[in-house]
Amino acid sequence: MLDSLLDQLARARGIGDAYHNYRGELKHFSRETKAAILAAMGCEVGDADSARRELERLETARWASLLPPVAIVRHAPRAVAVDVAADALESRLEWHVTLADGTRQGGEVRAGDLQETERHEVAGRTWTRRLLPVRAELPVGRHTLRASLGVDDTAECALIVAPPRCFEPEALHAGERPWGVAVQLYTLRSRENWGIGDFADLEQVVRRCALHGASFVGLNPLHALFPSNPAHFSPYSPSTRHFLNVLYIAVPRIPEYRECVEAQQQAESAEFRTEVDRLRATVNVDYRGVTRLKLPLLRTVYEHFVRRHLAGATPRAEAFRKYRDERGDTLRLHALHDAISDHLRAQDADRYWGWPAWPEDLREPARQGVAEFARKHVDDVQFHAWLQWLADEQLGAVQTLAAELGMPIGLYGDYA
Description:
Layout: H1 2-12, E1 18-20, E2 26-28, H2 31-40, H3 48-64, E3 70-73, E4 79-85, E5 92-98, E6 104-110, E7 115-122, E8 125-133, E9 141-148, E10 154-161, H4 170-173, E11 180-183, H5 199-211, E12 216-219, E13 223-224, E14 240-244, H6 255-259, H7 261-268, H8 270-281, H9 287-310, H10 315-347, H11 368-376, H12 378-404, E15 410-413
Parallel strand pairs: 3-10, 11-12, 12-15
Antiparallel strand pairs: 1-2, 4-8, 5-6, 5-9, 7-8, 9-10, 13-14
Helix pairs in contact: 1-2, 1-3, 5-12, 7-9, 9-10, 10-12
């Protein structure tokens, strides 16, 4: 009895029954695994009565909500399932969609006139599931649907309008069989890089591959990692997938580096060149060494950028401000995270290994401690936003080059 209830409850909570492993073998989840996952989700599953109560609670919540949490529609005519009590079928159901651009469309209909697809008894009350036609001009994207049956029964959900099929490059659509090469960018070595493959190296790979007719260059995940903790270097364990690993920045390619005498003198010093040679000669990437070399020099270039460009409101400064505006709060929070991490790890790197170990008042973006840190460390936060701008600029330039050289796909990125 309990096994059957666990199976039902697991399905209701989105837990599958089995999966195929890399050999193609079907592997079923054990009762213990399902029970442990359900318990972690807050379900009481110690015995049959507890599991039955959880199922009843989920079933009641499922039917008592006018709209689902998320509705996905693909083809016209588009319709969303709504749950209406049988004693409310004479009510007028009003709805409107707020499109991604802020415009609104909507209408109303008698609930009982909607097509019924299912009927269910829950806690002595009869519920019906009906299809609400959403007669609106809906572009592909994420919108918001709001519906109400009187004042006391109002619901809102995300309305996802999905395209009928995935994007397909024109070359594939035309029946061509494109080929390319896969590159782990960090493994590349050249006479120009500083011990780790960078976006200048990637440019050379694209040029050579395009010369031989390749359609794409496949890449390892380039996601942002942890600048203050270079030992955490797996490309499959990023700090965020929204931004890039700043160690891939090719410093000599930065326009402000070519303007900054101080940075050039630093990079041309005997001590610096000796360390670059050592880093290029290591069997494996020395992430700590690369970080010690690159980040202080990037800071020097940044300070020049602030003095020369931000203070002078140059076109480069405007390009940076535009990038910050486009990336908005997502960039601000990421830069804030990296700045806090820098600050704390400089005090005690072992203690402050990651945000779960940070002081309580710095762990959540909305907390007062974070706001105070942001006010006191404006320049540090801006530095990390500037690094992301450079990385985005250099990677984008390589993709533009790939298109100019006739590669139909160009860069093909992996995703952690």
